[in-house]
Amino acid sequence: MSQSHGQLDSVMHESRLFPPPAEFATKSQIGTLEQYQELWNRAAADLPGFWAELAREELHWFEPFTEALRWNEPVAEWFVGGKTNASYNCLDAHLDAGRGERTAIIWEGEPGDTRTLTYAELHRQVCKFANVLKGLGVQQGDRVSIYMPMTPELAIAMLACARIGAVHSVIFAGFSAEAIADRNNDAEAVMVITADAAWRRGRALPLKQTVDDALKKSPTVKHCIVLDRVNEAVHWEPGRDHWWHDLMREASEDCPATPLDSEAPLFILYTSGSTGKPKGIKHTTAGYNLFVKKTFQWVFDHRDEDVFWCTADCGWVTGHSYVVYGPLSAGAAVLMYEGAPNHPAQNRFWEIIERHKVSVFYTAPTAIRAFIKWGEDLPKMHDLSSLRLLGTVGEGINPEAWMWYHRVIGGERCPIVDTWWQTETGGIMMSPLPGAIATKPGSCCVPLPGVVPKIISSGADLVADDPKQQAGDKTEVPGGWLTITQPWPGMLRGIWGDDERYREVYWTKAPGRYLAGDNARRDADGYYWIMGRIDDVLNVSGHRLSTIEIESALVSHPAVAEAAAVGRPDELKGEAVAVFVTLRNSAPSDELRQELKQHVRTQIGALAQPDDIRFTNSLPKTRSGKIMRRLLKDIAAGKESVGDTSTLEDYTVLATLRSDEE
Ligand code: WTA
């Protein structure tokens, strides 16, 4: 569960209600509760028909589709027989409509350099880079790994892959060489696109060097394209390595988008599940594209004059859907920022909002908690009056953090959209529509049109929830597993190379429905509240981590016999990683503790580094041999810091006392 007990208590008792401001609602596409309900009910009555109509309106079709949905649980095919292209929908469609001179990307680098690309310019760059890919032999269906800083070139690389039907796999630039190699090998990537280095808090992170290490173990990768971002000296393998700017100099600007089947894979994105091996979540072309475009327009109430800023990195799904594919399909002006929120100072974000007149700002609760800690004087130094709408994603937001966001950043005039979704869902599933739905701090409010959620107690056993669900239903559901009962266009199409795991993880424990992996409840107004995970997935600063993945990394160290990782509540990160370790022959010491932290960094990446490591002579287990995670969680939560002593503790005594409970 990702919230501390304190937060759970507060979301259970939250009753404040914030109706859409009248002026805001008047200008919204969906500006009344009735309009939302009408749309939701119409969608639920005929899902394929509802989405088909939107698909015809919103996407460019080289060939029209003949069937809206072919559903062979758990495999969906949307818009069967049609041919489209996500890069066309994001670029050419706007040029065709005479909107090529509008701003597509406003970019700010961490050192302060800025660039603005119009749709026409972005189109030109994407065409050229698509020709670069072709020139190095990349073909439709090939997988291309991307390990880059948040520069326009990252979006260009993604869109160029989409243009020729290559499948991108973006790897967050904080992952280790081991993690990159695993992903290259699982996807059998033919190419890696990277940069010499990335700016992070004024320092250059050596991305190319990490990729070099990964490529020693990535036999399928034939080429590596390197963007010169920082001007760092890099190791070079002639024949394999190529500078971005060298290749682009020669490339032709003429590259028509390839007409692709609706179900042609668009990207793979690896995410943590409850096993040691990250899952390659597969998304395809037409359904995903439609879903992110419509959800972008609905949730962010998109208007032509908006400057939209989603602070997520393209290494995560939020960056895919709401930095690149959603807003660009909608023709929005997207702000992209390369660096840290506290560089050179803790007011960087407010400076950016003021400088570029950002009107819609979408960030994560972990960032908001950091802003709160840094103090409200900083945002108050800046003119934030351009803002009209705020959003959050990635984890539940504590009602008090919501109130701070509302008051200090939103000046009490901006609605807040708390958006619940997942890598697997492709786009936002639940959120207030800001012109139509009164918000409650800490609740993701209501399902979007075309999304039919149901909370069940466990297995197929239904909690009292009306099977003929209608928008505006007010049946209270006390709490249980959150499931989605009907396919939706943005849903994952599987786990790369592992159909069985896809079925098992998402479709067996709650037969006939998509099991999201979150607990939720629905209140007497029909509002949904996400109550944390049902599995051993941690949510650390809004990032998903698997406890087993961390444990596997630890036991791969020669000193470690056994390891158990659990989450413990953390004020800033939401959850911190606490691990309990038994040793083989080594004695516990602070040096070893540091070495193990470093080991996890090299195995997975800095984001997985344990915050606490405790040595024990045995792990508490039940009689049947299961590690007593609940007990360990309690122990981890009990003490804020481990202290300097490196004693070997013994939790088996506690285990004996508690063994009946587990
Ligand atoms: C959690 C991020 C509460 C949830 C888009 C989910 C949330 C997981 C919210 C997916 C929210 C995301 N309220 N919890 N608004 N948004 N989560 O795949 O546990 O990185 O299952 O996708 O984050 O994380 P992922």
UniProtKB/TrEMBL annotation:
Binding-site list for ATP: G394, E395, G396, D418, T419, W420, W421, Q422, T423, D518, R533, R544
Q: Which residues carry this modification: N6-acetyllysine?
A: K626
State the name under which the record lists this protein. Acetyl-coenzyme A synthetase
Record: residues binding Mg(2+): V555, H557, V560
Q: Its GO CC terms?
A: cytosol
Write down the required cofactor(s).
Mg(2+)
Role description: Catalyzes the conversion of acetate into acetyl-CoA (AcCoA), an essential intermediate at the junction of anabolic and catabolic pathways. AcsA undergoes a two-step reaction. In the first half reaction, AcsA combines acetate with ATP to form acetyl-adenylate (AcAMP) intermediate. In the second half reaction, it can then transfer the acetyl group from AcAMP to the sulfhydryl group of CoA, forming the product AcCoA.
Q: Where do the annotations place CoA binding? A: R200, R201, G202, R203, T318, N342, S541, R601
Coiled coil stretches, renumbered: none
Residue ranges annotated for the AMP-binding enzyme C-terminal domain, each copy included? 549-626
Task: Please give the InterPro entries that the UniProt record associates with this protein.
Answer: Ac_CoA_lig (IPR011904), ACAS_N (IPR032387), AMP-bd_C (IPR025110), AMP-bd_C_sf (IPR045851), AMP-binding_CS (IPR020845), AMP-dep_synth/lig_dom (IPR000873), ANL_N_sf (IPR042099)
Q: Which family does it belong to?
A: Belongs to the ATP-dependent AMP-binding enzyme family.
